[in-house]
Design a protein that fits this description.
Number of helices: 9
Number of strands: 5
Strand content: 5-15%
Structural class: alpha/beta
Amino acid sequence: MKVLFFPFCTGSGLAHAGACLSVAGELAARGHEAVLAYGGTRPDLVTKEGVRIVEVDEIPPERSGGHDQMDGFYPDTENLIRFIECDRELIEAEAPDVVVIDMRLPSMPAAELAGVPVVTISHFLPTTGYTSLTSRQRKLGMLRHPLYVAGRIGSILDRDPFRARVLSERFAEARRRLGLPPREGLPMT
C-alpha cells in the first residue's frame, strides 16, 4: 500500500510533520510505501529512513502568524484554489492508495478531486466531537490568559475566535468553483 502524508508545516514547526512521520515510519517498517509532502523550512529534520520526502508549496511563515487567525493562511479563494490544485497534481503524480492529512486543509478537497480516500489526524480534540469540554468550559478556560483574550476580544464576541468562519466561506466558494458538492464547515473530518 502507498500512503501520501500532507502535514501542515509553515515555517520550522514540526508538530504535524512529526505526527505524520510517526505513522509513516511504522507503515514503512511494515513494508508499505510512505511519502511525506513537506513544505516547511526544516527538511533536514524530517528525513526518516523508509519515508520519501517530496517538496510541496506551503503557506509562507509570515502568513501563519502564530495560528491565531486562520483566515490569513489562505487570504482569498484564488490562493486557496491554487493550493488545492497543487496538492491534487501531487496526489495524481504519486498515485497513492490513501492520503493522510494533518491540518493541511487544501489536501482534503484535492484528494476528493483525485478520487483518493482520505484519513485525517487531529491534534485538536474539541474539533472532533470526542471532547468532554463544553463550549462554555472552553471559553472560561481562555479567561486564564487575559492578555491573549484581550487581543482577541472582537473575534471572541463575534463567536469566531480564530476567524474560521471566514476561512470556511472561502472553502465553500473554492469547492463550488471546483465542482465539488457543498460541505459544512472546514474540511477537518
